[in-house]
Design brief:
109 residues; alpha+beta; four-stranded antiparallel beta sheet; 3 helices; 4 strands
Length: 109
């Protein structure tokens, strides 16, 4: 629950192509590295299980995490490529939640 009594809810789901047109507000931060569309599409196509977004009840993108699997032979691991949260949604442990999700996915894979 928010400090002003409003109930808040965040949905974390797999990133989809439509999100590429809706996540610009997250990438406006000067500390967030922005990639070209083909880079995001490659991750979406090759590692869809490692690409998630957090959205608010109004379906606004609050943040995202993108990662991949890398390694050789028996030595495979998950790699975080980017994690970013829009400035107005920070201080809610959203990045931490996204990191834990990626870690769980890496362990299962």
């Amino acid at each position: 629950e928010a400090e002003d009594g409003r109930e808040t809810m965040t949905t974390i789901r797999r990133f989809c192509c439509d999100d590429l047109l809706r996540f610009a507000s997250v990438n406006l931060d000067h500390l967030t590295e922005t990639f070209n569309m083909s880079f995001y599409m490659t991750y979406l196509a090759r590692w869809p299980d490692y690409f998630h977004t957090a959205v608010n009840p109004g379906d606004r993108v609050m943040g995202y995490i993108m990662g991949k699997v890398e390694g050789q032979g028996e030595s495979w691991h998950g790699h975080v490529t980017a994690v970013s949260v829009a400035s107005e949604f920070r201080r809610q442990k959203l990045a931490k939640t996204l990191m834990h999700l990626l870690e769980e996915i890496s362990d299962k894979m």
